[in-house]
Fold this sequence. Notes:
Blueprint: E1 3-7, H1 13-23, E2 27-31, H2 35-47, E3 52-54, H3 62-76, E4 81-84, H4 100-128, E5 131-138, H5 149-169, E6 174-181, E7 184-185, E8 195-196, H6 198-211, E9 216-219
Parallel strand pairs: 1-2, 1-4, 2-3, 4-5, 5-6, 6-9, 7-8
Amino acid sequence: MPTIAIVGAGPGLGASLGKVFGGHGYDVALISRSKDNLGRLATGLARHGVAAEGFPADAADPASLTAALQAAATRFGRIDVLEFSPYAGLVQVRPADVTLDNLAPAIQEILYGAVAATQAVLPAMIEAGAGTLLYTTGGGAISPYPFLATLNAAQAGLRNWVHNLHNTLAEQGVYAGVVAVSAMIGDNPPEGYPTIAPDTLAQHYWNLHTQRDRAELTLPS
């Protein structure tokens, strides 16, 4: 069975990705900091007939993230799809107030975490000549929000790197793509905010994985 590893798995997008990919015959490796959260997600996916297991790790800790992905690959046989979307919070910092100290946590979790996760699965994908790498950012990676300067900078770095991956890995059979979401993800959002339902969003990831025809998808389009 093919396997998707979801880094930053939560009750919204993570659960929906598990349902969508699981519905297409994928096993699901769930990775996040909370063991309780992982247990609830795995149980919920099991009710949909999806084989899922949790592997605790912190995206900001490269060693624990690498170990979790290696454990998932051992458990399921391989990782065919990596999806990276840890929640780094919405720490408000204006551009002129960015320092090395307040920028470091966002860089560590978003950019360094993505690199660590990718390096844990990419060699096997290249050897197999197949694989998919999917990454999630906010819309601020493209058009930055002045009050989220540290988050935007880290996500923009990730976006740039994913475009480079997309342009250089295709000839080796590996697809890389980034999804930039400029909306709240949820089924019952506050009135007046742009929103996207997690099940709808997850279907876009499936489409990217199967069509493999673009480096980036922005939502809402």
